[in-house]
Amino acid sequence: MPAAGQRHASCTEKPVGCAYPTGTQVTTLCQRDVRADNSEVAWLWATCAECNREARRLAGVEP
């Protein structure tokens, strides 16, 4: 989920479909409270390293 200049991950339930609408307040896996940004450019931002590590840990891909 793009927000705050990076692509983050979250376990917060999505209100509609498979994305958070722009402006939706979400708590990320890196424990930040951010607002979603679904603009076309936002999807090109770099992935948050902390969210990536936690997502991989939750998926059982990394310890």
| Low-pLDDT stretches | none
Helix percent band: 10-25%
Q: Please write the string of helix (H) and strand (E) elements.
A: EEEEH
Largest sheet: 2 strands, antiparallel
Number of β-strand runs? 4
Rg on CA atoms, Å? 11 Å
Q: Count structural domains.
A: 1
Number of alpha- plus pi-helical segments = 1
**N-to-C span:** 23 Å
Shape: globular
Quaternary structure: single chain
Derived structural class: alpha+beta
Strand order, largest beta sheet: 1-2
Beta-strand content: 15-25%
Overall pLDDT metric? 92
Describe the structure.
It holds the Pfam family zf-HC3. This protein has one helix spanning 49-58, and strands at residues 2-3, 6-7, 25-27, 33-35. With 63 residues, the chain is of the alpha+beta class. It has one domain (2-58). The termini are far apart. The mean pLDDT is 92.
